[in-house]
Amino acid sequence: MKPSLQLKMGQHLAMTPQLQQAIKLLQLSSLELQQEIQQALDSNPLLEAEDAVHDSVDEPLPPQDFTSPAPESSELNYSDSTQEAASENTLPDDLPVDSTWEDTFQDTFQNISASSYSGNDEEDNNFIDRNTKPDTLIDHLIWQLELTPMNSLDHTIGVHIIESMNERGYLSLTLDEIRDSVIRELTEESTEPPLVEDDEILAVLHRIQQFDPPGVAAQNLQECLAIQLKQLPETMPWRKEALQLVTEHLELFGKHEYAALQKKLRVDETSLKLILQLIQSLNPHPGSHLQSNQAQYIVPDIFVTKHHDCWKVELNADVAPKLRVNSGYAALIQQTKSAQDSTYLKNNLQEARWFIKSLQSRNETLLKVAIEIVKHQRGFFDYGEEGMKPLVLHDIAEIVEMHESTISRVTTQKFMHTPRGIFELKYFFSSHVNTTSGGECSSIAIKSIIKNLIDNENKSHPLSDNDIAKQLKISKGINAARRTIAKYRESLNIARSNERKRLV
Fold first, then answer.
1. What is the pairing mode between strands 302-307 and 421-424?
2. Quick one: which of 68, 374, 379, 487 has the fewest CB in 10 Å?
3. Is residue 141 scored above 70 in pLDDT?
4. DSSP assignment of 105-132, as one string?
């Protein structure tokens, strides 16, 4: 075959670097966007941030700074004030025989004590709060263990018991496993094989079970509740019966078989209610309140407020600073004589313009999508979750004339601050269920109705999924099958009707 040249015409899509950058910025969250902007500012000398100027009252105002530095005249210096006070109170020539130093220099001492402190209590406390690591459950128990008098072997056993607990305060290892770990540690420290009896492990364990919080170091729920009940005064009403129920009939309590419990404990319904109230006042997870989880903060991208019965949508100006091209470096392009320097400045100028344009496109698209979401979900903002309407990505994509993938990128990890709370934009998209009138009802609205029905149900005779489906059809005209109700109920982490049955 001979080589030949052929001309073909065709169309294809090409992802230019500018388009790739725009797509990348579009799917970034607010925190990731700030990092991307900072990286661009550090790498491109022709890109700089300008101070946000709020010419219109419609833009959100920046947070006010109520902390202002003290005037220079109010700053106190220990050495200067001390010398000044000493100069004003010179030693007199004649002093009474019975005089004291404090009587003569009382004013001096007051001035020195007043001037020796020039700090701010609130600033110091804030510094301590910011730099103090919260205590974990293990730290809290180790601190109590160090204050408990015991020999070195018991101390080692206690450390192993405490370190074997999970975040709820229960033992995650068996007593045999704890004993083996203690023996391994003692064997490494000494050539003689140590002898650790089971009674020693139990004795230390019972000692730790008296630590704060009550119920800690239990092997199961039954032991946890029993430990807390035993720590109550013996004169506590129904303590004995509650301890019997926990140690012998906890399974019946879990199955809500109250009639069988009355026979076992030989009490009437009123007395059983008081016993259950005492048990329900206990903490099944004693270590939960000492978890050292750091708070996760959400920075909203959109603010939605109501003014004169109209909902107003605006971008959060503090999320991303306004950017501009550095005019000083841009002017050097025409002045530089080096071709290498001119090429470097031109490339960075083009990248700066692309970045600014991509950032503006991101903000415009985000605001446009947010406005359409608020228009469509006006019922939610006015009446709550029950006013939510069905909405899918295709609906918004048609209105703003964009692809569904673009809408998906815009609504991912973007948050909206509303009078009803902070929600991710994807929260406002939901499936639907048909109604008897031929309309549609949002799944979020149905979940809200189900939750309200269960919250207001008779706890002694809770509603089944069939009962909820019937009530939805009668009161709201919603055709929802029993399995649909079960799916929504499980998504709300609500138990079945037999598990929700309560005597009190």
1. unpaired
2. 68
3. yes
4. THHHHHHHHHHT----HHHHHHHHHHHP
